[in-house]
Amino acid sequence: MMMKIDLDKAENNYFRGNLGAVYSPEKTLFRLWQPFAEKAFLRLYDANDELVSSLEMKRNKGVFELEIGGDLAGVMYDFAALENGEQREFSDCYSRLLDKTAKRGIVTDMRKNAPEGWEQDKPITADVPVIYELSVRDFSMDESADFKNRGKFSAFCEKNVKNKYGDPCGLEYIKSLGVTHIQLMPVFDFDSDGHEYNWGYNPRFFNAPSGYYSQENAVLELSELVLSAHKMGLGVIADVVYNHVYDAGNSSFERQLSGYFFRGDKEFSNGSGCGNEFASERNMARKFILDSVEFLAREYHLDGFRFDLMGLLDIETMRQIERSLRKINPSILLYGEGWTGGLSPLSEQLRAVQKNARMLSGIAFFNDSFRDAVRGSVFNVNDRGFISGDERKAEPILRAITGNYPDTFWTEDPAQTINYVECHDNHTLFDRLDIALKDTDACEIMRAEKMAAALLLLSQGTAFLHAGQEFLRTKNGSSNSYDLPDSINSIKWDMLYENRELVEYYRGLTAFRKRFLGELRGGEAEEINGGFVIKNNGFVIIINPTNENITQDLVQEHEVFIDEKSASDSPLYTSKRLCCAGYGVLTARCKTVEEGN
What we know:
Elements: H1 7-12, E1 20-23, E2 27-33, E3 39-45, E4 51-56, E5 58-60, E6 63-69, E7 76-83, E8 86-90, E9 105-106, E10 130-134, H2 136-140, H3 170-177, E11 181-184, H4 218-231, E12 235-240, H5 252-256, E13 264-265, E14 267-268, H6 283-300, E15 304-307, H7 315-328, E16 333-336, E17 364-366, H8 368-375, H9 394-402, E18 417-420, H10 429-436, H11 442-457, E19 462-466, H12 486-489, H13 495-498, H14 500-520, E20 525-528, E21 531-536, E22 539-544, E23 550-562, E24 573-580, E25 584-590, H15 591-596
Parallel strand pairs: 10-11, 10-19, 11-12, 12-15, 15-16, 16-17, 17-18, 18-19
Antiparallel strand pairs: 1-2, 2-6, 3-4, 3-7, 5-6, 7-8, 7-9, 13-14, 20-21, 21-22, 22-25, 23-24, 23-25
């Protein structure tokens, strides 16, 4: 049950300064925003989690503060506030590191927790981003690869990891695939909800790396992960979940000031589908999100953020996030889910949803219309997509490839689209095709997988891959594996060898994409013998959703880069007659274009 408070008074007590434990080797300044409390206390603990002192803080308008001299790095602490005669204890929502029970914050010297070479580390930029989503645990838990630090941040720092066939695995493999960024599913503190496995969408503390993925020092180990990726030229994107918390009633936010940080009147509203919504539109709630993303971008050198259920965050907050983060890293990638998980009291015109995308020009949105056109609706398992026999769904795909969006679409700028056919949610593409094409053989599924890959990586905007989709990752038919065991979720690295043909196809497509994507934009799709052809800047793209070959006779020789078998950034062969096989994609360029250059 939420308390009803005077929101106007709370908003008028906005505080611009740093909150939490503001550390320096000489002193630490503790600050707590709580404009309604009569008193507030800083509580310090020893290594045995025993309370050693409770110190009254001094009021400074809506903030309580207390400065303690000396080097307090490593000291555990929390706060207490006395309001209306009731004292509530709670952890600092700004905590940067947590004790093993995740009940206390730890005063943290970020410099001492930085890896060697951290000061020289630079952000990663990519003209043509290709994002690769994965879970820290999934990455290294399966015994098919010889990781030593299974399920931990440290696994990303291991070199020369192999599967049983001797194929490179881990970051070395991901780099070789041609992707530019890895997107980590939530890595900041979350509740596992009683399960051994959890995706991490049960957030508790947004600034503290999860001990679930740590061996000893979560701050250092997450930083080492980022540094290892950067040394390979891979950017790192964090999946952040500011739209809700795991247990609102017992969260630090609600215990600090009940009725302020979450939407609802007496009861928490549930636009997240998880029992509560963070009230991003309120001044100090917005400040927390801004402070948090700035801290994470600066201290962990992150190259981007993926915002879970971004539609529950308000437009102005997202605008301020973008302005702030561009100052830190002008090339930072910002994108999110442009929808909610349920009904929300936040006015639709204020939400960061797809229909308001034109008001957020520097932020991209997942293109679910492309996803559903390619594979079929994720809400109807029996619905077929373009690659599984429903050629009527061509329009969103053709729009994505040409970059020509109608006025009725939510953006006119392809840079705002994150195109994808698979992510951690819903069935993997293989599992979905296994349902849609259950009466066919494995060759048909492989053909459809290749077609999906080509449609995705020829599309304008940003391409997004789910780890393992390039080697037929399966979750044994599960459409929601958030709490299922490692046997379902872990990446089976031996499948690299078993499905090498598809892996090499993806590798060739990413190379082609990086070289030619800008030249492919534009043109109009024309129907041809049941398929489609797009011509622009000397390129010809033929898309064939039928089981019959489609041919195009041309006056001049064309270099073919992509067909139903192979893909490359170098010509596979040349011909004046282009033949696109059934359920395939062919891409060629007029040979005189290169000669003219």
